[in-house]
Fold:
Amino acid sequence: MHRQTRRNLLNMATGIAVAAAAVVVFLPAAQAAPGTATSNVNVRSGPGTGYAVVDTLRRGEQVDVQRCQSSWCYVVKPGPDGWVSASYLSAGGRPVNPSNPGLSFGFTIGGPDGPQISIGVGNGNNPQPRPPRPPVVQPIYDEVCFYDRTRMRGDSFCMEEGEAIRNLGSWTDRISSFDNPGGLEVQVCSDTNFRSCRSYTTGASSLGDYDDYIASIRVR
Structure:
């Protein structure tokens, strides 16, 4: 084979390999899968409870799922985007498998900054798709949701077991009720840094003299 011909073939093979790698890395970034929040849930700046809360999803709110890492998925929505636990999402009306949520949304992700490979969820040897099942919403018992009106109405945000907020900021002196289905220990305090506190192990449709008078919270 002539030297020039070999060089042209080598350049062509290299170009095809680079183009294929570009498709693998960048194609899924343009894709998104629809998802639905099955409960009020915190949106965080990273994939874990150790990251800051940037927003709250309401039950039934629709989101675009961009990618998943471990048991967390990155969602895009009106307002701040961020990471949500897959336990609080459904895909196509079906519960999401928290141990491998990417399969429910039609893709898997190796990591937040690594290559992203899109895959399809096939039917195997069964050519007929299964009929859709009604959504199953599991009750959430490891979080407490706080509301700015009595009887669990109005604007809200949720906290999970083990979380604490020393200064509620814009929510200071706004909380009037909270829902606590799991019977967690909730400590509401009228001062910042957990001072002048009262503890609950149930929800409260009204906070009495603590109504609109809370500046810090702990959930245990």
Observations:
- Residues 17-30, 109-127 have pLDDT under 50 and may be disordered.
- Residues 31-118 form a domain with the SH3 type barrels. fold (CATH 2.30.30.40).
- The chain has three domains: 1-30, 31-118, 143-219.
- Residues 184 and 201 are 5 Å apart (CA to CA).
